[in-house]
Structures are given as structure tokens and as C-alpha cells.
Design goal:
Helices cover 33% and strands 18% of the residues. A hairpin with a 3-residue loop joins strand 1 and strand 2.
């Protein structure tokens, strides 16, 4: 809710800022891609893979950049399975505001680990998510894999 209430006030792209800084949630960065832990995760281990260059769509990426993003997604998929043993993953891209993109100007891929029964009444009734691990614990668990 904190994010939703201030999303229209964000002046700088979070991905561009993270690429330039040592953001505590930045797990990996190379020439073309970066991996960030989602500050407002749907489940523990919710990652975002983004190109370094600010681009709003896959079509704006060069073939090299697009390939690098997918290679990094594959690496993250492997890491999440190795570390968290999810029963499934949601892997997706929301392009544009109407599709649900919280950061519409910078394309990124979400990787959301899933387990049977991981969704309950709390998000619907209580408007809150129950995440069993703090973000700093998740950083500690995942950072060494990169």
C-alpha cells in the first residue's frame, strides 16, 4: 500500500537509480542486466530482472540486451529452485500501466516463487501480505548465488 500511495510521485526510475548505486536490494549486475529483490514482494524470493538501459518495451532492446535479460531470468529461475525449492514460479512481464506495470518506463521481468497454499485470505480481507522472511534475510540467502 505504501508503494501504491506514492507511485505517481516517484520522479526517478527505480531501476536506473539501482543500476547507478549500491542499492541494498541489488543482487546482481553485469554489462546488460541487473537483478533486484522486489521491495514489495508477493512471496519470499520475488525477484525482478531488468536491462541496465532504460527501455519501456522488449522491442526497444537490442537483440543482445534481450538475450542477456532472458539468460539472467534463466539463472534466477535456477537459483530460486536451488535456494527455496518452490513448487512453481510465476515469470512475467507487465508492459504499460494498464497491464499492471508499476514502473511502466523500464521493462522488467518478475520471478515469483509459488507454493501450494501460499495464497490465503490475508491479501483479500486484511489487505496485507504475509511474508515469512525479511528482505534482509532474503538478500543474505540469494546474494551468494550470483
Amino acid at each position: 500500500m505504501e508503494y501504491i500511495m506514492r507511485v505517481d510521485k516517484i520522479e526517478e526510475c527505480i531501476f536506473c537509480r539501482a543500476a547507478r548505486s549500491n542499492d541494498e536490494l541489488l543482487l546482481y549486475k553485469d554489462e546488460f542486466t541487473m537483478v533486484l529483490l522486489n521491495r514489495y514482494p508477493y512471496t519470499t524470493g520475488h525477484l525482478m530482472v531488468s536491462p541496465i538501459r532504460h527501455a519501456a518495451s522488449l522491442g526497444e532492446l537490442s537483440a543482445v540486451e534481450a538475450h542477456a535479460v532472458m539468460d539472467t531470468v534463466r539463472q534466477c529461475e535456477h537459483i530460486l529452485h536451488e535456494e527455496y525449492h518452490p513448487q512453481g514460479l510465476n515469470i512475467g512481464i507487465n508492459e504499460g500501466i494498464c497491464s499492471g506495470a508499476g514502473i511502466p518506463g523500464h521493462i522488467h521481468v518478475h520471478l515469483v516463487p509459488r507454493w501450494v497454499g501460499d495464497t490465503n485470505f490475508m491479501p483479500v480481507v486484511g489487505e496485507v501480505r504475509v511474508i515469512p522472511e525479511s528482505l534482509s534475510q532474503t538478500v543474505d540467502r540469494l546474494k551468494s548465488h550470483f
